[in-house]
Structure to design on (320 residues):
């Protein structure tokens, strides 16, 4: 009965389904006015049931608000890290956990603790009952001893081995050969002749005569008198800032964590990557990626994560 209860508690603790819903689609980086470009957010929601659209929209709004509030606390200059026109790109990958999921994880932990306590108690009870059963001794039964009997030894005659029989040798006749033997004389005939080689002469290929005369070449184009070739105007010089394509570096391993490899007791996860580029040259000046078990909808947790990413950078100081 105790084992059935333990199995039932384990089933209730780990029999919860996991539903992961992507809230935001993949976005392309876009440059906007100012030093900080619009952040790129990839948000996932983890729950035990289907996530309604209202909950997904509110979670996305709170995630973007928390990230924008954390970035607004920083004063980033346009000449940051020696750039002519600096721009900071922010990419975020996060997993938010619903309240129902938090509740399931809490009850699962309670069920595991209760199951461990029940198993330990059952082991202790079995050990105590086994020690009491072994302490009780059964009455001993006496076995009567048999009286000794004298046995007189007797000699057993051993028969002598039989004598060896004499062997008689037999003569084996040698095989006889029938027929004729080979003769040492061999008679044969052969012919040998040689043909001298002749030189190889290639005949010239016959050239077919054309059926009609070839057409005359077209006359050369001549410029008319008084008409001069006008040079084409040179193309306009491109705008140096518009001609530069801003290309972001690939995401680091801390940001590209697998969403589908998360366990049942995994909490919220947030990772961000900051890339500082120069609009004038397209050069990457600075890049850093950080990850933590932080709630993406919590403004304080996001502010702490951004502070950890920009720690030690003089061009990204906090507002006084």
């Amino acid at each position: 009965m105790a084992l059935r209860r333990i199995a039932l508690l384990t089933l209730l603790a780990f029999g919860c389904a996991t539903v992961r819903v992507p809230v935001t689609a993949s976005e392309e980086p876009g440059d906007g006015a100012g030093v900080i470009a619009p952040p790129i957010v990839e948000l996932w929601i983890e729950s035990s049931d289907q996530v309604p659209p209202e909950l997904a929209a509110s979670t996305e709004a709170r995630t973007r608000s928390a990230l924008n509030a954390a970035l607004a606390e920083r004063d980033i200059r346009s000449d940051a890290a020696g750039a002519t026109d600096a721009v900071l790109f922010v990419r975020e990958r996060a997993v938010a956990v619903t309240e129902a999921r938090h509740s399931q994880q809490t009850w699962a932990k309670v069920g595991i603790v209760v199951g461990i306590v029940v198993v330990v108690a059952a082991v202790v009870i079995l050990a105590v009952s086994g020690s009491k059963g072994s302490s009780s001794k059964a009455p001993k039964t006496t076995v009567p001893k048999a009286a000794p009997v004298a046995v007189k030894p007797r000699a057993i005659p051993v028969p002598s081995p039989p004598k060896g029989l004499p062997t008689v040798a037999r003569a084996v006749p040698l095989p006889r050969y029938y027929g004729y033997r080979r003769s040492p004389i061999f008679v044969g005939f052969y012919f040998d002749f040689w043909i001298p080689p002749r030189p190889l002469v290639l005949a010239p290929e016959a050239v077919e005569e054309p059926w009609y005369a070839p057409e005359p070449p077209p006359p050369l184009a001549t410029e008319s008198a008084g008409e001069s070739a006008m040079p084409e105007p040179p193309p306009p010089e491109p705008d140096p800032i518009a001609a530069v394509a801003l290309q972001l570096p690939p995401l680091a391993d801390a940001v590209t964590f697998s969403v589908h490899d998360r366990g049942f007791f995994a909490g919220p996860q947030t990772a961000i990557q900051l890339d500082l580029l120069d609009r004038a040259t397209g050069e990457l000046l600075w890049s850093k990626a950080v990850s933590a078990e932080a709630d993406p909808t919590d403004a304080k947790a996001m502010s702490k994560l951004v502070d950890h990413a920009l720690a030690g950078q003089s061009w990204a100081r906090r507002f006084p």
About this structure: The first strand starts at residue 19 and ends at 22. Residues 238-244 have pLDDT under 50 and may be disordered.
